[in-house]
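Project outcomes to date are best conveyed with an example. Our students and postdoctoral researchers have been running inverse folding experiments weekly, and each run begins with a structure described purely in tokens. The record below, which covers 172 residues, was selected by the lab manager from last quarter's runs and is presented without edits.
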């Protein structure tokens, strides 16, 4: 079975670490991710099958912890080390969701004013009954209106979206 970043992130949360330990785990993942991307020698060391897992474990444990080392070795064994960034992002998203915070991805044709942004955020929080973390993206192709994605739900109030719906209804 192919493991997704969500599987790994849920596994980390399932370790029942304290909030401080979870944050430390996430910090270590970010640090290793940046080192892995910028340091070819480290990448070669971690990915080289000729280097014994015990040697990699020893190095990881001296710089981090036994638990973190085990997690990284699992990623290496599953050829999933390249999934570190998506795992971290999913871990952040799951932790925020547990705290009642959800991401809202808002596409607009022009940047929103501060007042309009606050008003939209308030309306979305009232609708979802959760704290909203807004991510605004300018998408001129929308012509006007707004397109919002919260989790699996998409609210398309853009002119482009309405024209698409009109076209579909006319065609059939």
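After processing, the design step wrote out the following sequence:
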């Amino acid at each position: 079975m192919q493991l997704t970043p969500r599987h790994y992130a849920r596994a980390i949360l399932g370790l029942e670490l304290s909030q401080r330990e979870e944050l430390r785990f996430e910090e270590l993942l970010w640090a290793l991710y940046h080192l892995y991307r910028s340091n070819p020698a480290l990448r070669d060391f971690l990915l080289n099958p000729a280097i014994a897992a015990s040697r990699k474990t020893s190095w990881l444990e001296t710089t981090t912890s036994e638990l973190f080392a085990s997690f990284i070795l699992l990623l290496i064994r599953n050829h999933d080390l390249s999934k570190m960034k998506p795992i971290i992002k999913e871990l952040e998203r799951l932790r925020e969701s547990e705290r009642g915070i959800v991401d809202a991805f808002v596409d607009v044709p022009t940047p929103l004013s501060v007042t309009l942004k606050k008003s939209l955020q308030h309306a979305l929080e009232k609708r979802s009954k959760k704290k909203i973390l807004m991510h605004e993206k300018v998408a001129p192709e929308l012509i006007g209106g707004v397109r919002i994605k919260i989790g699996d739900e998409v609210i398309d109030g853009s002119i482009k979206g309405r024209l698409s719906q009109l076209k579909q209804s006319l065609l059939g």
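The beta strands are 101-108, 131-138, 147-150, 153-156. The longest strand covers residues 101-108. The training component of this project remains on track.
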